Amino acid sequence: MNRIKKGDQIIVIAGADKGKKGEVVRVADDVVVQNINIIKRHTKPNPQAGQAGGIIEREAPIHISNVMLFNSAAGKGDRVGFKVLEDGRKVRVFRSSGEAIDA
């Protein structure tokens, strides 16, 4: 089970976009966050795919170690731990409060 999943609210803790908050779009060894780490991509037109050429702005991946899950109750980034419930389910919890992230 991953500490950060698609759809989570995160805060960037290192890099040029430090302090910004956003929603996770894709996760691997790195994460792609909506409207964070924007790069300009120079692309050639591809008439077969119907793509126009030019300069396109898009999100670039950020390494997963440079983001933290955002705890809205505390109003800051928080570390994530795991807990096994009585019914056998494994859930993510905030380390500071022990509050379950996954209901």
By helix and strand content, what is the structural category? Answer: mainly beta
Gap from first CA to last CA: 15 Å
Rg computed from alpha carbons, rounded to a whole number of angstroms: 17 Å
CATH architecture: Roll
Strand order of the largest sheet: 6-3-2-1-7-8
Number of helices: 0
Along the chain, the helix and strand elements come as EEEEEEEEEE
State the domain count: 1
CATH class: Mainly Beta
**Which overall shape is indicated by the principal axes computed on the Cα atoms?**
elongated
Mean pLDDT, all residues: 94
Low-confidence stretches: none
Give a quick account of the main beta sheet: strands, pairing sense, barrel closure.
6 strands, antiparallel
| Helix content estimate | under 10%
Number of strands: 10
| Beta fraction | over 45%
CATH topology name, in short, is SH3 type barrels
For the structure shown, list the relevant keywords.
103 residues; mainly beta; SH3 type barrels; two-stranded antiparallel sheet; 10 strands; 46% strand
Structural features, described:
This protein has 103 residues and is an all-beta fold. It has one domain: SH3 type barrels. Helix content is 0%, strand content 46%. The protein has no helices and 10 strands. The strands form 3 sheets. A 6-stranded antiparallel sheet has the order 6-3-2-1-7-8, with no helix packed on it. Strands 4-5 form a two-stranded antiparallel sheet. The chain has a two-stranded antiparallel ribbon with strand order 9-10. β1 and β2 form a beta hairpin. The mean pLDDT is 94.
